[in-house]
Amino acid sequence: MALKLKFLILCGFTLAAYLAAISREQSLPWLLAALLSAALLTGVLWPRWLLQRLSVRRVGPQRALEGETIVFRIDVQNRGWLPRFMVELVDRLPFVDAAERGANDGDKLLGSVAYVPGRGARSFDVPLLCEKRGFYKLGPMGLASSFPLGLAEARSRADRSLQTLTIYPKVFPILSLPLFGAPSQIHRGGYCLPEGAGAAEFSGLREYRRGDNPRHIHWPTTARLNELMVKEFEPLASASICIALDLAKDANIGRGKHSTLEYAIRIAASVAAYACSQNMHSRVLAAAAQPLRILSGKGDFHYQAILDALAVAEADGVTPYAKLLTEIALNCVRGETVLLLLAEPPHRNAETLQALALLRAKGVYLFAVLFERDSFFSNASWAKNHAGDRTLNAGLLELGAHCVTVRRGDDLTELFNR
């Protein structure tokens, strides 16, 4: 707007100078009008010339963690013989300032190059903060200039190569979780022991029965008693976690980084990290526009798959949480722990409790994270008129669930390590 105003003002002065020169037979008004015309043409055409024969390239990481500062390397190349002055670098970086407003598709000024020599290059580094997890398409990068008079701005997209950036959710450390075991198959005399150690432990000796596995015969005791004796094993309970995300639109309260969805993603990623570090099986399920189904597994590759999915998860679903929980109940493993992330509207509490009762009937343990919806509303008076239904808390306690309440601004590291 300021550039346009300057241009119009100079056009007005130039027109006035020519009108004055026409009405007078003097050389000075014509000289003044010529100078104003030259300034007008220079202010409009010079910026366009400055951007010719210039190219720019951005080099940087394609993956980062939420809260991490990454560095982009910017290279400006002048393919012309004459130098270029005062060129600005602009780029589309939607992850910048995304914590409050969400993804921003506007151009961001990265800096300016005062001088690029003919047939030369300039390079510099730009540090940027990754404020919010997600998958972002960057660029294309461009150049801009309004030098020397600031009358008009010329722009060009000098870099046609696009780059993507995946920002993974920030993970907080968890020292322990109140998990229970999921008993494995009982490995007694009639079964072969598993290859992995720790699936069963020795509990004693007993007399050989028909059908027992000969591999389990304890020969020293058999020789001493002159009677076949076999080793008996008891199963060890190994914990497994099912992370149930609620990606329904009406279950996401708040904006940007300070929303129930972002808190839930961070908690889910941190619990998955804890499970993989403890060599536990974990899986992630969610109903959204793009259903999230990560089967049970463990290890670094499994954890990376979970992070990739959580980085792009969005609250765009319409499926009630109760339906997802019912689906989990139909395919659950007895003794499994289901991580519940509850932020849905109070009018769905009744059907959600019914689904949770079905899970408990299947022998599943419940670890419930309840988001205090009122704390995530920006308008406190509006939130007060829509206070959450307390029946869900009471119902969870009756089902024997371990409950953790999360409010906006809570320190999740402290909350989960008490």
TrEMBL record:
Keywords from the UniProt entry: Membrane, Transmembrane, Transmembrane helix
Residue ranges occupied by any DUF58 domain in the UniProt entry = 205-317
Q: Which is one Pfam family of this protein?
A: DUF58
Question: What domain of life is recorded for the organism?
Answer: Bacteria
Oxidoreductase in keyword set: no
List the transmembrane segments: 31-51
The keyword Zinc-finger is assigned to this record: no
Name used for this protein in its record: DUF58 domain-containing protein
What organism is this sequence from? Methylomonas denitrificans
